[in-house]
């Protein structure tokens, strides 16, 4: 199963701001409200691109999608160490990873974006997720 390339967010906007967006959509500047909001977010991210890049480097974050499966974590366990998962984007702990294996091999999780993991793994690692 492929990972989704986006996550749904819910935001609250004032009626006047919403009206402005609807006006721009009606005038043909954007195809719909979501298009306007995505464009506005991308514009803000572009404005802060240098700051984000420096912070990603400083924090040593993996950028994009990072997947941890049973085989990956078994190799970590065999080496006698633990991993610190630090991702900006999407971190996936696969369905074939047991809570016990995750507890033995994952020291900490910091995800700026989204974390997908089996409920039992999330529960077992709750105190290690920041």
UniProtKB/TrEMBL annotation:
Question: Which Gene3D superfamilies did the record assign?
Answer: Met repressor-like (1.10.1220.10)
Native source organism of the sequence = Stella humosa
A single Pfam family it belongs to is: RHH_8
Q: Which InterPro entries match?
A: Arc_rbn_hlx_hlx (IPR013321), RHH_8 (IPR041088), Ribbon_hlx_hlx (IPR010985)
Q: Name one GO biological process term.
A: regulation of DNA-templated transcription
Q: Which PANTHER family match?
A: BLL4998 PROTEIN (PTHR36215)
Q: Which residues form a coiled coil?
A: none
Q: What is this protein called?
A: Arc/MetJ-type ribon-helix-helix transcriptional regulator
């Amino acid at each position: 199963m492929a990972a989704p390339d986006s996550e749904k967010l819910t935001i609250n906007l004032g009626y006047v701001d919403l009206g402005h967006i609807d006006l721009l959509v009606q005038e043909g500047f954007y195809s719909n409200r979501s298009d306007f909001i995505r464009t506005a977010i991308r514009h803000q991210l572009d404005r802060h691109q240098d700051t984000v890049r420096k912070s990603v480097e400083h924090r040593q974050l993996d950028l994009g999608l990072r997947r941890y499966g049973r085989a990956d974590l078994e190799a970590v366990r065999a080496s006698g160490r633990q991993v610190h998962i630090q991702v900006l984007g999407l971190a996936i702990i696969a369905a074939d990873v047991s809570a016990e294996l995750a507890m033995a091999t994952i020291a900490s999780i910091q995800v700026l974006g989204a974390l997908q993991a089996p409920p039992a793994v999330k529960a077992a690692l709750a105190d290690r997720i920041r």
